[in-house]
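Milestone 3.1: sequence recovery, worked example.
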């Protein structure tokens, strides 16, 4: 990571820290943090230098998101979906859109999940119909992060023709016929604006197709999944890291006044053992996370397996570590000012984001047993 990216990461993390509590309490989009990212050129981090981007690596983006997630899960989630969408735009978008992303003028996201096929993102039931030089889209998208704030959605539908699973499109969010169904009011990641989006006879130019008709599943697996899995793992591990640090701080700072010596929470061997397990779990998952990125960078034969593993490992680690943090920090952990309960709520999300942990265990089992992932 170059010095200017390292400095930008720290600046952005500080902005995220300043606004995180309000973002959570109000369920407000983390505008200040995303604007700071835009000004620092971070929205174009994964854009190639030839279109004016930073030409950063997946590891750069993962490092940024892990650091931001320690301060604000919602900001890290918005960035995760932005980089996941821009990976598709970089690979299949036109030069104008790529330049807009690189210049920070375009906030991206994925609109894959649907009310019909739910977490089975690989099987959209929404339609795309050709009408002259236009495409007409109809859909009930169930969750779109940054729904009201994204410039355009990377959108899945059934293909125009043929029996393949899907086709991808770039759908500007101001297109007539699109309707965002209200603000997001959820348990965690409360500022990520992940709302349902309804599309009724939404007309886009045919050249807004991303990749070939019917090529959607291949792009999801080859381009989206490595980026999304690594970055949502970064989100989960940033939350988990913050939980380890806050728990250790709480355990060493809180005391029993009636005990003359050894009166800190951390003087209890039980508490120290819990903290030790938290540290160990996070470090093990981080080692896998780093190795996954190395496997992707080097095109290693096991990269596909690692990509499936890393999201499941990071999500489970974050949820378990969050549970332990709530236990170790006692009744105090229920209070917002201690700062543990927000990360606890935020950490639940990566378990159920598709591919969900349970789906990943099924995919992993199939991969290890030499079976096809789908079918
Ligand atoms: C905060 C947040 C932000 C999100 N942002 C986006 C976004 O930007 N874009 C987007 O496209 N989606 C987004 N999603 C949606 C997400 O990816 C999932 O599609 C969604 O959470 C699935 O919820 P559901 O209730 O429909 O799950 P269901 O499909 O009803 O699943 C219910 C349970 O069944 C299990 N299950 C389902 N299928 C299998 C299987 N084959 N094997 C084993 N277990 C299975 C699941 O693991 C889960 O535990 C977001 C979700 C959240 C929570």
């Amino acid at each position: 990571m170059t010095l200017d990216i390292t400095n930008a990461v720290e600046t952005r993390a500080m902005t995220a820290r300043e606004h995180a509590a309000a973002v959570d309490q109000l369920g407000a989009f983390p505008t200040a943090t995303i604007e700071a990212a835009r000004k620092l050129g971070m929205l174009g981090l994964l854009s190639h230098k030839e279109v004016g981007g930073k030409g950063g690596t997946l590891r750069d983006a993962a490092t940024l998101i892990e650091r931001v997630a320690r301060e604000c899960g919602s900001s890290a989630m918005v960035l995760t979906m932005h980089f996941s969408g821009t990976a598709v735009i970089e690979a299949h978008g036109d030069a104008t859109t790529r330049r807009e992303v690189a210049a920070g003028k375009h906030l991206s996201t994925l609109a894959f999940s649907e009310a019909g096929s739910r977490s089975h993102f690989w099987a959209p039931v929404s339609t795309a119909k050709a009408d002259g030089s236009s495409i007409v889209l109809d859909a009930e998208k169930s969750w779109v992060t940054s729904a009201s704030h994204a410039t355009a959605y990377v959108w899945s539908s059934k293909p125009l023709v043929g029996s393949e699973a899907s086709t991808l499109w770039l759908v500007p969010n101001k297109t007539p016929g699109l309707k965002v169904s209200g603000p997001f009011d959820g348990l965690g990641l409360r500022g990520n604006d992940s709302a349902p989006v309804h599309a009724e006879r939404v007309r886009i130019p045919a050249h807004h197709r991303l990749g070939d008709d019917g090529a959607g599943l291949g792009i999801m697996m080859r381009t989206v999944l490595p980026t999304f899995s690594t970055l949502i793992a970064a989100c989960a591990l940033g939350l988990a890291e913050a939980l380890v640090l806050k728990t250790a701080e709480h355990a060493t700072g809180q005391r029993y006044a009636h005990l003359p010596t050894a009166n800190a929470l951390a003087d209890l061997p039980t508490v120290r053992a819990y903290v030790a397990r938290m540290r160990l779990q996070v470090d093990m998952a981080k080692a896998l996370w780093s190795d996954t990125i190395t496997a992707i960078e080097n095109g290693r034969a096991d990269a596909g397996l690692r990509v499936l593993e890393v999201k499941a490992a990071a999500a489970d680690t974050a949820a378990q570590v969050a549970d332990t943090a709530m236990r170790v920090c006692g009744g105090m952990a229920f209070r917002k000012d201690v700062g543990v309960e927000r990360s606890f709520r935020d950490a639940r999300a990566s378990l159920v984001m598709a591919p969900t942990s349970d789906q990943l265990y099924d995919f992993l089992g199939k991969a290890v047993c030499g079976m096809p992932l789908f079918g």
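The mean pLDDT is 96. The chain has three domains: 3-102, 110-214, 217-368.
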